[in-house]
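Notes from the 1:1 (GR / supervisor)

We went over the backlog. Supervisor wanted to see one worked example end to end before approving the batch request, so GR pasted a single chain during the call. The sequence is below; no edits were made to it. Supervisor asked that the structure be written out right there so they could see what the output format looks like.
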Amino acid sequence: MRSYVLSAAVIISSASMLSFRPVQKFDLKASVERGKELYTAQCMSCHMEQGEGLEGVYPPLAKSDYLMSDKKRSIDQMLHGLTGPIKVNGVTYDGVMTSFDALSDTEISDVLNFVRNSFGNKGAAVLPDEIKGARK
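Structure output shown during the call:
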């Protein structure tokens, strides 16, 4: 009887160890690096190389009060686009930004992490799960 109890304990212990997976920490630096490539391909033609935009036409991402004030709004605008007036650093912009919903959750996370941590900006990480949740 004693060896049966011991065997059961070993099996349960082994099974629980097999299901244990350490949580992998999000690598913001790697995300920013990947995001730079996406920014160059998808965003730079409007927002310019240094994120300075084109006053009155394309809003700046560099030191942008609008971008940095609401992470959730930035996610939503990447997924669904933007039409209508916005005020960025005291200047009104009234244009259209297309949606980037064809990009993966990780790709949107990466480009947002790049712009939120470049051009004089410093922001908290945008995780792929946040993008996934916003798609619903």
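Supervisor's comment: The first strand starts at residue 82 and ends at 88.
Batch request approved.
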